[in-house]
Amino acid sequence: MTFKELNISEPILDALVKKKYSLPTPVQEQAIPVALKGHDLLGIAQTGTGKTAAFAIPVIQQLNRMTPKGTERNIQALILTPTRELAIQIDECFSDYARYTNLRHTVIFGGVNQRPQVNSLKQGVDILIATPGRLLDLINQKYITLNHVKHFILDEADRMLDMGFIHDIKRLLPLLPKQKQTLFFSATMPQAIANLSKSILNKPVRIEVTPESSVVDTIEQRLYFVEKSQKSQLLVNILQKKKRSVLVFSRTKHGADKIARVLNRQGIGCEAIHGNKTQVARQRALANFKSGKTHVIIATDIAARGIDIVNLEMVINYDLPDVAETYVHRIGRTGRAGNGGTALTFCSQEEYTIVKDIQKLTGRKLNTVAIPA
Ligand code: AMP
Question: For ligand 1, atom 15, which residue shows the shortest CA distance?
């Protein structure tokens, strides 16, 4: 199926050509027709599946039809997302896909001065991308009203709950008009998320792509049994041989900094990103990585959630995550869009139970590799 067959309008089709997207991804194929018909949607899809375009395209198309040039701007679409990185990334997607329309959008998130965001809002926007805390803040200060919202998108709902945003969401929901279209996306569907979705969706169409337990076939997975104290040496050895785009996962912020120090000492250019770094530092680290200035980035799970790097060649689990599902998320950062990818996992004795969980969840045995002498 082509984008044209999904009844996407010319200005958006042109923007997709410019992005060099040739065909819709499965989540786009399923979600776009449903959303264009005005239905509510419950989408189970993780980052990397193309879900941003799956909600952005129908929102842009529906608003573009209804917003004649020169009219007063009101926020007609609200996209709520848990992290600043995701918010910025979604905003960039709107810039790309709406480039041939006259729609205006902006992004707001916490941790930075609010003034530029307020100035941007004052100029009038049709589409607002926001993290919950800053949104509530600016609503309280009367810079934002949600009275005109026709499309509400809740992105990464499971991560929202994980990060403790449930109360913010519950405070925001009554501020939205009753009559609206809601698109709800989550990578997983635990009971709490299912309950939340039931409470806010109206006869939703449910779509599901790449269930949580599935690992893309193009990812080569390798397991190294290694003592905790030997992990940094193993990492150095691997990275010295292969200098390429590598995302290393650390369980803690402190651990990420420590790994970065060790690698830098060995002349391996890298940066760490995590919640203790300033927004500016995180953006700079990402930009350096994307441009190829650095080849390695070390991240905690939450910080990594917002990273969108198309050509990531390798993911290294320096530490195993606490739960097996997170492993699937992590390694899904490589092997995207049909490209090959490699996922290495460093497992110490204490971490072996998680490896067993991972093998059970994914239905595959991880390939054990002997540590090079
Ligand atoms: P997302 O899941 O929205 O974070 O998207 C993951 C990546 O896939 C982003 O880099 C998008 O630019 C890219 N992408 C989204 N849709 C398509 C498509 N139809 N064809 C090729 N790449 C796409």
Answer: 50
Q: What pLDDT does residue 309 have?
A: 67
pLDDT(43) > 70:
yes
Which residues have any ligand 1 atom within 6 Å of their CB?
21, 24-25, 28, 47-53, 308, 310, 337
Give pTM, 2 decimals: 0.67
Task: Please give the structure tokens belonging to residue 372.
Answer: 């090079």
H helices of 67-204, where? 84-97, 115-122, 132-140, 157-162, 166-172, 191-200
Nearest CA to ligand 1 atom 19: 24
pLDDT digit string, tens, across residues 259-278: 999 999 999 999 998 877 87
* Separation between Cα atoms, residue 290 and residue 282, nearest integer Å: 12
Give me the residue label for tokens 């995590």. 274
What pLDDT does 235 receive? 96
Q: Where in the chain is the domain with CATH 3.40.50.300?
A: 4-208, 219-368
What is the average per-residue pLDDT within 293-307?
Answer: 83
The two beta strands, 127-130 and 105-108, are parallel
Whole-number Å distance, alpha carbon 50 to ligand 1 midpoint, is 4
Strands (DSSP E) contained in 137-295 are: 151-154, 181-186, 205-208, 219-225, 246-249, 270-273
Tell me what percent of the residues of the chain surpass a pLDDT of 70. 93
Q: Which CATH superfamily is domain 4-208 in?
A: P-loop containing nucleotide triphosphate hydrolases (3.40.50.300)
Nearest atom, ligand 1, residue 47 CA: 2
Q: Which CATH class is domain 219-368?
A: alpha beta
Q: Which of 46, 52, 87, 47 is nearest to 279 (CA)?
A: 87
